[in-house]
């Protein structure tokens, strides 16, 4: 059962209205639990609107349809989804590039067989919230929206244009295994290698 956790401040009604607006707007968010990510931008403090579900964690992956490294990682991301979705892990891909509109994203998911939801972020709400710098970059958040891991999916890419035959460390996989077994995440942050997320020109 999903529920709202709000503060007792005067912003309570505003936050509730934001959630109701998003849920009634007709826009698909993949699941209710992903709504809170869009709501948190209305509150820069520790207390925000959280919608909790049964998912032990949500994987947010910043991608770019035109980024070659994002394209190369689609097969690995699909495999991770296949492995962890049955355990309740949710996946959501975010596209910060202004050229990645819903139609482009749907086509990208079809061509590269990505089985989870993709959403544009042209105003960089989530880019700013999670301080994402490149695509692909992965973020794992728990039910309360706390970042448990952020960085590279694995160590396949050493630098731009340089990659190993096979990765030797599977950072995202290791983080998800730790979440599911209740163990601490030993490597909670790594540097992702990928295409730089361009800053918005018009703020």
TrEMBL record:
| Protein name from the UniProt record | Thioredoxin domain-containing protein
Superkingdom of source: Bacteria
What SUPFAM superfamilies does its record include? Thioredoxin-like
Database matches in InterPro entries: AhpC/TSA, PRX-like1, Thioredoxin-like_sf, Thioredoxin_domain
Give the Gene3D superfamilies listed for this entry: Glutaredoxin
Positions of the Thioredoxin domain:
1-181
């Amino acid at each position: 059962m999903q529920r709202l956790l709000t503060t007792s401040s005067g912003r309570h009604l505003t936050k509730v209205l934001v959630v109701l607006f998003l849920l009634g707007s007709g826009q698909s968010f993949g699941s209710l639990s992903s709504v809170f990510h869009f709501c948190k931008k209305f509150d820069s403090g520790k207390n925000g609107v959280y919608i909790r579900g049964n998912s032990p964690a949500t994987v947010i992956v910043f991608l770019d349809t035109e980024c070659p490294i994002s394209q190369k990682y689609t097969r690995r991301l699909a495999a991770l989804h296949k492995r962890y979705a049955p355990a309740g892990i949710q996946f959501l891909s975010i596209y910060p590039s202004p050229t990645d509109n819903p139609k482009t994203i749907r086509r990208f998911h079809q061509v590269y067989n990505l089985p989870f939801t993709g959403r544009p972020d042209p105003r960089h709400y989530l880019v700013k919230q999670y301080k994402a710098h490149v695509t692909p970059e992965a973020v794992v958040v728990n039910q309360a929206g706390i970042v448990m891991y952020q960085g590279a999916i694995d160590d396949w890419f050493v630098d731009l244009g340089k990659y190993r035959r096979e990765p030797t460390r599977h950072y995202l996989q290791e983080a998800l295994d730790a979440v599911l077994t209740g163990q601490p995440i030993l490597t909670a942050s790594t540097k992702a290698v990928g295409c730089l997320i361009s800053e918005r020109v018009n703020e």
